[in-house]
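Posting this for the archive.
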Amino acid sequence: MRPVNLIPGEERAGERRPMRGGPLAYVVVAALALAVVGVTVLVITGNQVSDRKTEIAQLEAETAAVEARANALASYTEFHSVREARLTTVASLAQSRFDWERVMRELALILPAGDIWLTNLTGTAAAGVSVEGSSGIGLRGEAAGPALELTGCAAGQEAVAGFVQALKEIDGVTRVGVQSSQRDSTGGSGDSASASNCRTRDFIAQFQIVVAFDAAPIPVVGSTATPAPAEAAPSAEGEAAESEDAGEGAEQ
């Protein structure tokens, strides 16, 4: 007969006993491992967040310090900007200013006595500037910079030609244009003469002349650094009144 061992397997001495827990033990161990990994990751993440918060707080403190310093220096920056703007304005004024006083003085020196008398004189710093009382000579639009508009009469066309040549002697004049120079073909008399029509005798020529200063700087109209856009001399009413005396003297 074959012997049979009736002792249960788990109670047999000297033999390997089967595992009582089964796969549950592996599941518990795996869960514990995952918990350890999760806690580790959480701790590391928390440390990183703390480090970032510390860096943010430090950067905010540095930013606040820089802003406070910038605010303290803002008045100096504003003063510097104002200073630069004023320097630019002064430089622009100095460059665009035109010496009308010198031009008027030289015009008075070259103006022939007795042969030429003016009824209107207008000086403008740029083309397109409208001045009350100006004669509005069309040639003025061809000169972009400062120019003089002269309206008056002369004792003959030869006197007009001589006056044109004399105007070229003024310092800074680049060209002199004659819009018109006409004699009164109707044989005018002193009774019909006026400030706008100074031809009191048939030999007197009324002219319109533009004197251009093209080399002078052209001011920018509307700029804060632009001087007064136009300067006009008052109508030479006294000289217009002398036109009758000059005409009578020439007739005699």
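Confidence is low (pLDDT under 50) at residues 189-193, 222-252. The first helix runs from residue 24 to 96.
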